[in-house]
Amino acid sequence: MRTWQEAWAEALYGEGGFYRRAEGPAGHFATATHGPDGELLADALLRLVEKEGLRTVVDVGCGRGELLTALAAVSRHTHPDLDLLGVDVVDRPADLDPRIGWLVAPGGPELPDLGTPTEALVLAHEWLDVVPCGITRADEAGTLRTVHVDEDGAEHLGEPLDEADSGWVGRWWPGPHPPGAVVEIGRARDEAFERLVARTGSGLVVAVDYGHRAGRRPIDGTLMGYRDGSACPPLPDGSCDLTAHVAMDSLRADLVRTQREMLRGLGVDGARPPLDRAHSDPAGYLAALSRASHAAALTGPGPGDFLWAIRRVDRITGSAARSSPRGRIAGPAPRGGSRR
Fold first, then answer.
1. What is residue 206's three-state secondary structure?
2. What is the pLDDT of residues 77-116, one digit of tens each?
3. Is the dihedral of CA 58, 4, 133, 187 positive or negative?
4. Where is this region: Disordered (predicted)?
5. Is 158 contained in some domain?
6. Which of 92, 132, 245, 282 is close enough to 222 for a disulfide, judged by CB 3.0 to 4.6 Å?
């Protein structure tokens, strides 16, 4: 019998795992990187690139390159020299824009050599939530124990936590933990984020995910499955996506903000255009109304509550600098309204 973390990794990234399937993630759910919402997000990210004076965008866990495709389109005339690089566990899609480079990743927390990009926006959009983490549950005495799982989803309590996991819990998710309480140990996510920072020469490293912070940890856990556009029981058999929210404060980012705050700061506010424009410029009014609708989706309840964890990497030394930066939605169907 395997721990949830081991079974999760095999189910998503093993041979025949969910993320290696031909239809790709977009065959089962949509995120903010897909469709018109992705185009609007790409436009906002391009403003961040401009604001920070960056010249490269790296998208880690990029699916089939949907967000990069949108970035290639919105930057084609204004930033034709912007370098775009996708990282995922599958080979480069044949129909991808030729501007977009590609690296194949091993999966989970492991990363390929990114080439130490400089002046880069290194984006991990809904990547950390699918980096398998330790799932633990408190027994009748309130002692956290590792949860083991069968392929059919049946769970069993195993051994108490080792020293490393106990240390993480003591720092980031301290007790007491009542019997049955679930703690999702984010140590693997922290290490993956640090690995991403270490592979960045300079610029911004940004993790975007549903998450939580100290004082508002979920008592029942957040591990969920998604298949064919709907939430489903989390089964570690490769048939569904498996995701759990991220303890965003344990990433030790320079800045953690909601997506609502970040996008509004980048000009995405969802405000409807003036009604009188419908008479003077009907086509322009309809285009602006559509944009406002998608902006409202990205900044409204659910997606707007995503957290952006931002780490600045020093432009000269390549070390992480402790200064703050300047400064999943429909179809085929969302994962539970977004992907949660």
1. strand
2. 999 999 999 999 999 999 999 999 999 999 999 999 999 9
3. negative
4. 319-340
5. no
6. 245
- Where in the sequence is the domain holding 189, given as residue range(s)? 2-136+185-271+302-321
Instruction: Name the phi and psi angles at 84, rounded to 5.
Output: -125, 130
Residue 97 is part of a domain; what is its CATH number? 3.40.50.12710
- Tell me how many degrees the CA angle 302-128-182 measures, rounded to the nearest 5: 75
Q: Give the span between the Cα atoms of 235 and 302, in whole angstroms.
A: 24
What is residue 277's predicted lDDT score, i.e. its pLDDT? 74
For residues 137 and 146, what is the distance between their CA atoms, to the nearest angstrom? 7
> Distance between terminal CA atoms of the chain?
27
In a domain, 169, yes or no: no
pLDDT, one tens digit per residue, over 193-213 is 999 999 999 999 999 999 999
SS3 call for 122 = strand
Is the overall model pTM greater than 0.70, yes or no? Answer: yes
For residue 77, what are the contacts with CB-CB under 8 A and spacing of at least 6? none
